[in-house]
Write a structure and sequence with these properties.
By secondary structure, the chain is of the alpha+beta class. Helices cover 15% and strands 26% of the residues. The strands form two sheets. Strands 3-2-1-4-8 form a five-stranded antiparallel β-sheet. Strand 1 and strand 2 form a beta hairpin. The relative contact order is 0.17.
């Protein structure tokens, strides 16, 4: 058997040039956390939607690299359930704009809210986020308008710039 370029089939899978199945994508790299990425600049490489974890369903698994041209062996991955981060990732995907350089930032207000929240600054500069154990100041619909986007703390919360 020969291919279109008249090379001889050597029996290998690589000869067939089968493209990866997008429905069964996985990232074979070490896991990190959003907290470890705070105040660091990195490249968003790809993501997988609707991943089920021990913390719940519908999480996103995000693949990153610290340098755009780093080898695959240097890639990392982290999970997120932030609606805002999910939205940003989906918008980048719609625009076919991966990889994309971002910086994870922390919100000073997040210290008051909880140990683990996710925040994103929207174009108006408003911080969104909260924790379920914080009554009216809870959930991703909570908007913090008390601080500017430059207010940061490396301990808690996260947002993509």
């Amino acid at each position: 058997m020969t291919s279109n370029n008249n090379s001889t089939d050597d029996g290998s899978l690589s000869f067939l040039n089968i493209q990866p199945d997008e429905a069964n994508k996985h990232f074979n790299c070490p896991e990190t956390t959003q907290q470890k990425l705070i105040n660091l600049q990195f490249w968003l490489i790809d993501f997988i939607e609707d991943v089920k974890t021990k913390f719940g369903a519908n999480r996103f698994l995000v693949k990153i690299k610290f340098k755009k041209d780093d080898p695959e062996s240097e890639a990392k991955k982290f999970f997120t359930n932030s609606s805002e981060i999910k939205y940003i990732l989906q918008e980048i995907k719609k625009r076919n704009a991966f990889p994309r350089k971002v910086t994870m930032r922390a919100s000073e207000r997040a210290i008051i809210l909880s140990k683990k929240i996710f925040t994103v600054v929207c174009p108006s500069g408003v911080l969104f986020g909260g924790n379920a154990n914080n009554s009216a100041n809870a959930g991703l619909s909570y908007a913090n308008t008390n601080n500017t986007a430059t207010n940061t703390n490396a301990n808690i919360g996260s947002q993509l710039y």
